[in-house]
Design the sequence.
C-alpha cells in the first residue's frame, strides 16, 4: 500500500489564526446556546399552543439534555478518530435539520423527537469545538481564542430571551427554531472555507461496548436527577444502582480494552479530573441565577416576560465583556490561581445576591460580580484543560468539560427545585406551597436557595486549588507521559489497532 494511504494527514496548509478558529467554532456554539435560551423563555407559549401542561412540556428540555449529555464523550472520541472538523460540520448540519423538524412539529411527541436530533448535532459541535481551538492554537495564544469563544457563548445567551420573546409573540413559536437555519448556513459556509482538515487517529478502534456503557450511565443519571422530585425510593434506589453498574462496567471495560474511549491514565490525571469536577460544581452553583431567577422575577415580583428577558442580559453581558481579558490573563496566571479566584467571585456574588433580595438593582449588581467570576473561571478552566490534555485526546477532554456543564445544569435544576419546594412548604405550612403566591415566603425561600448553592462555588474553589501546573511553552510533558503509559499498558509493543 502506498505511504499516502496509511500516513495520517499532516497539519493543513489552510491554518486559521486563533481569532478565526474561535469565530468559526463560535458560530456552532452560538447556534446551540441561542436555541437553548430561546426555548427556555418560550416554553409557556409552546405548552399553551400544544395544549399540554408543565409536567409534559418539560420533556422538550429534559429529552434534549439527556441526549446532549450522554453523547458528548462519544462524539469527542469520534472527532479524534474521524477528524474534528468533519464531525463538527456534520453536527451543524444535523442541528439545522433538527431545527426544521421542530418548526414543523404539530404535537409534543413530534417536537421532543425533533429535539433529540438537535441535541445530537449540538453534542457533535460542543464535543469538538474546544478541541479545534486547541488544535489550531499554541499555549501562547490559546487563551485569547478561548476568551472570544466565551464572548460568543455569552452573546447567544444574552440575546436568546429577548429574541425568543419577540419571535414567539409576533411570529409564533415555530419561528424560534427557524431562526437557526440562516445562522447555521452562514456558519457552515464560513467554517468550510476557513478551517482545514485535522489529523485522524485512525489506528484507534471505536469502543462500542464502552460507549454504550457510558451512554447508559449518563442517561440513567440525568434521568434520575431530572425526575428526582417525583420518584419514590422504590424507583430511585434501583435507578441509582443501575447507573452505578453502568459506570463501574465502563471503567472495567476501559481498563481492559486495547484503545479505550477515555484512557484510564487520562481519567486519573489530577489536572483533568479537577478541571471537570470544578466545572461541574460551578455550573451547579449558578443555577439559581440561570434557571430560577426568571421565575422569581415573574412570580414573586410581577415582572412581565419582556422585562425579565432584559434583566437576564446582565450575567451573559458581563461574561462577554470580561471574557477576552480573562483569556489574556489565563496565558500569564496559573490555572489554579485564576480558576479559584473566579469561583470565589461567583460565591461572593451569590451571597450578596441573597442578601440583596428582593431589591432588584442590588441583586443585578451581585449578578454582575457573578458574571466576572464565571468568565474568569470558565476561560481559565477551558485553557487549562486543553493545555493539559494530550493532543490526541483533546476531543475527549473537550467533551468531558462540556459534560460537566450540562450535568451540572441538570443536577442544579433538580436540586434548586427540590430545595425551593421543601423550604417554601415549611415557611407557608403547606407542602409544596399554597395555590396562590405568598410573596414574603417566596422571597425568603429564594434567598435560602441562593445561599445554599453558593456553597458549591466554594467547594469548586477548593478543588481548583489542587489542580497542579501545566507546561505553557509546548507539549505538556506530564500528559505525554500519561498517554505513553496508557499506550504501553494497553497493548505494549504490538502496534495493533483495537478490535
Sequence:
Amino acid at each position: 500500500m502506498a505511504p499516502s494511504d496509511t500516513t495520517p494527514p499532516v497539519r493543513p496548509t489552510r491554518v486559521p489564526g486563533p481569532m478565526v478558529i474561535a469565530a468559526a467554532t463560535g458560530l456552532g456554539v452560538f447556534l446551540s446556546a441561542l436555541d437553548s435560551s430561546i426555548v427556555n423563555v418560550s416554553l409557556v407559549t409552546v405548552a399553551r399552543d400544544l395544549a399540554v401542561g408543565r409536567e409534559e412540556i418539560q420533556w422538550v428540555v429534559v429529552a434534549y439534555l439527556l441526549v446532549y449529555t450522554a453523547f458528548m464523550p462519544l462524539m469527542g472520541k469520534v472527532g479524534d478518530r474521524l477528524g474534528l472538523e468533519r464531525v463538527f460540520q456534520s453536527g451543524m448540519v444535523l442541528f439545522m435539520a433538527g431545527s426544521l423538524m421542530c418548526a414543523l412539529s404539530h404535537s409534543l411527541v413530534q417536537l421532543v423527537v425533533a429535539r433529540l436530533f438537535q441535541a445530537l448535532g449540538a453534542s457533535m459541535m460542543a464535543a469538538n469545538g474546544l478541541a479545534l481551538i486547541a488544535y489550531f492554537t499554541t499555549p501562547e495564544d490559546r487563551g485569547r481564542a478561548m476568551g472570544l469563544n466565551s464572548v460568543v457563548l455569552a452573546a447567544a445567551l444574552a440575546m436568546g430571551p429577548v429574541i425568543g420573546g419577540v419571535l414567539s409573540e409576533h411570529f409564533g413559536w415555530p419561528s424560534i427554531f427557524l431562526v437557526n437555519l440562516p445562522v447555521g448556513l452562514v456558519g457552515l459556509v464560513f467554517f468550510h472555507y476557513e478551517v482545514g482538515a485535522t489529523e485522524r487517529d485512525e489506528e484507534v478502534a471505536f469502543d462500542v461496548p464502552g460507549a454504550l456503557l457510558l451512554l447508559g450511565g449518563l442517561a440513567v443519571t440525568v434521568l434520575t436527577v431530572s425526575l428526582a422530585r417525583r420518584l419514590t425510593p422504590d424507583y430511585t434506589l434501583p435507578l441509582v444502582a443501575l447507573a452505578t453498574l453502568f459506570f463501574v462496567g465502563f471503567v472495567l471495560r476501559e481498563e481492559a480494552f486495547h484503545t479505550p474511549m477515555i484512557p484510564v491514565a487520562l481519567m486519573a490525571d489530577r489536572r483533568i479530573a479537577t478541571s471537570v469536577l470544578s466545572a461541574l460544581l460551578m455550573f451547579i452553583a449558578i443555577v439559581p441565577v440561570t434557571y430560577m431567577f426568571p421565575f422569581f422575577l415573574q412570580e414573586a415580583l410581577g415582572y412581565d416576560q419582556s422585562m425579565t428577558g432584559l434583566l437576564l442580559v446582565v450575567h451573559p453581558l458581563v461574561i462577554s465583556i470580561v471574557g477576552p481579558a480573562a483569556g489574556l490573563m489565563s496565558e500569564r496566571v496559573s490555572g489554579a490561581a485564576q480558576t479559584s479566584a473566579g469561583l470565589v467571585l461567583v460565591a461572593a456574588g451569590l451571597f450578596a445576591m441573597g442578601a440583596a433580595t428582593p431589591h432588584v438593582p442590588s441583586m443585578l449588581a451581585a449578578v454582575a460580580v457573578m458574571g466576572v467570576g464565571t468568565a474568569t473561571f470558565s476561560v481559565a478552566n477551558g485553557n487549562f484543560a486543553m493545555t493539559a490534555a494530550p493532543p490526541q485526546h483533546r476531543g475527549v477532554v473537550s467533551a468531558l468539560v462540556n459534560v460537566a456543564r450540562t450535568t451540572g445544569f441538570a443536577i442544579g435544576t433538580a436540586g434548586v427545585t427540590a430545595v425551593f419546594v421543601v423550604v417554601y412548604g415549611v415557611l407557608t405550612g403547606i407542602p409544596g406551597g399554597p395555590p396562590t403566591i405568598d410573596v414574603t415566603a417566596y422571597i425568603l425561600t429564594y434567598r435560602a436557595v441562593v445561599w445554599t448553592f453558593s456553597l458549591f462555588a466554594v467547594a469548586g474553589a477548593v478543588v481548583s486549588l489542587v489542580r497542579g501546573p501545566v507546561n505553557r511553552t509546548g507539549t505538556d510533558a506530564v500528559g505525554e507521559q500519561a498517554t505513553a503509559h496508557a499506550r504501553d499498558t494497553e497493548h505494549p509493543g504490538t502496534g495493533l489497532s483495537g478490535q
